[in-house]
Amino acid sequence: AGGDEASVTASEALLEAPLRRGSRGGGVLAPFNRSKRRHRPNKLSTTMKGATKYCCYSAAAAEYCCPAAMPKTPVVPKTVLRDTTAKPGYRKGYVFQSKTHQPVDTTFAAAHTALDEITSAGDGYSRAPGEDGVGGWLAHRSDLGKPGSGPGLDWIDVVRSDPEGTVGASLDYVRGFRPAGAALTHPPRILVLYGSLREESFSRKMAHECARLLEAMGADVRVFNPNGLPVRDPALERHPKVEELRNLSIWSEGHVWVSPELHGSISGVFKNQIDWIPLSSGSVRPTQGRCAAIMQIEGGSQSFNCVNEMRKLARWMRMPCVTNQSSVAKAWQEFDEHGRMKDSSYRDRVIDVMEECYKFVMIMREHADYLVDRYSERKQVAALGRLSTIGDRNPAAGGR
């Protein structure tokens, strides 16, 4: 994040990433009323144990707008307070705040503890984006109510269970995989990004096949549609697609990246999505500790330029990479008229990578907070009460 957004107070940081719509497993993006300058949580239609549920994307947000999503925090009446802590030059506004403020746990695990409480599906879980371009996370499904479904010859069922016993291998055992001593019980949350805007793009088709495979193994998958995402510009950080992408990254426990190769490197569409995901936002690291699985598509002969570049990006974003990878050459030969991958060694490799991705996420998410706990950052928290930002180190730096 640039200095302008990273230097704001905790309450302003919350306003900089307002929630826009409710959704299963944690909701992304509830409405923000700019005219009245107040945050309006999106009230869900269902209740649990008599308590009204609201949608939020992290424990930090839950403390302000979702008391029911914070099981260890007493539900207290809310009052609208004027934010008087804003620094000169920064936007001021209203925030929802508890009358009795308590410290907020913004760790990786705590955020997901809050998300576990929210189970209702929202508009994002649809096959097409809404009028604002947000949502459509299940575009890969042919049957909206059936995880892993797809058009045409649905080979996912064969891979999942080998019902005829002709293959001699299946993914059935993966669904029951739990690391020893695992504390997290919800399905692994995986965000899929692809690097093309064409409706018939092969990177999009492969991203959808990856999503179906992960769902067949039991993952909660959201596929981000890059259409409508503006080119990186700090002045557009309140854009709905930017907010959607950033909040999806916070929601996730792992990423799958699929890019076509253009001029020997990743596409601009894919890189633009990575550029919009900040290394830090206040005290939250949106990608730190999340696993990444990387894949590329070529129209010609096979290469590994994109996957090599994506490994470098993942390392810079503090994301451990799945050791396996996939590079599909002459992609126009590898997909049928329904956009499904044909049986080949390429498809087997894609299955391998997704299986490893699922296992990596299941193992790594249990220890993510510990693995990314650093001496230098503990010093920052001791001195500032939070992680430092670019603005702290260089107030004149501004947004990048």
Q: C-alpha Rg, in Å? A: 21 Å
The assigned structural class equals alpha/beta
Low-confidence stretches: 1-121
Silhouette: globular
What count of helical segments does DSSP give?
14
Polypeptide structure, described:
The protein is of the alpha/beta class and 400 residues long. It is built from 14 helices and 12 strands. The protein has helices at residues 3-6, 10-16, 59-65, 108-116, 156-161, 172-175, 202-217, 240-251, 268-276, 305-316, 345-364, 368-371, 375-384, 390-393, and strands at 32-33, 38-39, 43-48, 51-54, 78-82, 94-98, 189-194, 220-223, 254-262, 265-266, 291-297, 326-328. Strands 7, 8, 9, 10, 11 and 12 form a 6-stranded mixed sheet that branches. The protein has a two-stranded antiparallel sheet with strand order 1-2. Helix 10 (305-316) links the parallel strand 11 (291-297) and strand 12. Helix 7 crosses helix 11. It is globular, with a radius of gyration of 21 Å. Residues 1-121 have low confidence and may be disordered.
Brief overview:
The protein has helices at residues 3-6, 10-16, 59-65, 108-116, 156-161, 172-175, 202-217, 240-251, 268-276, 305-316, 345-364, 368-371, 375-384, 390-393; strands at residues 32-33, 38-39, 43-48, 51-54, 78-82, 94-98, 189-194, 220-223, 254-262, 265-266, 291-297, 326-328. With 400 residues, it is α/β, with parallel strands linked by helices. Helix 7 (202-217) crosses helix 11 (345-364).
